[in-house]
Write a sequence for this structure.
């Protein structure tokens, strides 16, 4: 499901991707199967989404429940990777370089959302604030430690 190219947008020739050897550590379950239904950016008042963490990484969730907010990084697996200039509003007027946009179409289609942690259920996080399609692979989870104080210090 690679997205279309709009009039005036510019692509480059890209060879086969060199394998960055990421581990997909889980899968994100959201209500959105298609791009047209998916929010452009997540909102903390958005719907609850479930972030499934695969074995053996579920153990790495130890301590996560202490945090109110997390940064989630995910692989926008249905994005084009060859667009250098984009026309996000499809108006034929305002063009932007890929690195001046948060568009999913980028050479390394990594998405980042700061989400509110609602619950931790064994190997699954329940969060609000996502904007990705159902089934999007999860790359990493990081607690937000700068702007938000942990709810309680981790137990020794
Ligand atoms: C604008 S991006 C923002 C992603 C992230 N919040 C960020 O700023 O890095 C969100 C959009 O990417 C598209 N998208 C979501 N999941 C995707 C996926 N798995 N593959 C390709 N495109 C996706 C949808 O159109 C969605 O509205």
């Amino acid at each position: 499901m690679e997205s279309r190219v709009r009039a005036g947008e510019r692509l480059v020739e890209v060879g086969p991707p060199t394998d960055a050897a990421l581990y997909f550590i889980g899968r994100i379950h959201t209500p959105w199967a298609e791009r047209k239904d998916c929010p452009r950016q997540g909102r903390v008042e958005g719907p609850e989404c479930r972030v499934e963490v695969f074995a053996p990484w579920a153990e790495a969730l130890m301590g996560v429940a202490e945090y109110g907010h997390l940064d989630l990084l995910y692989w926008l697996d249905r994005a084009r990777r060859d667009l250098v200039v984009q026309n996000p509003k499809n108006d034929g007027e305002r063009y932007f370089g890929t690195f001046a946009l948060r568009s999913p179409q980028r050479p390394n289609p990594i998405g980042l959302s700061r989400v509110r942690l609602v619950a931790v259920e064994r190997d699954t996080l329940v969060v609000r604030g996502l904007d990705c399609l159902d089934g999007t692979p999860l790359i990493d989870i990081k607690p937000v430690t700068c702007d938000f104080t942990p709810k309680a210090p981790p137990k020794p």
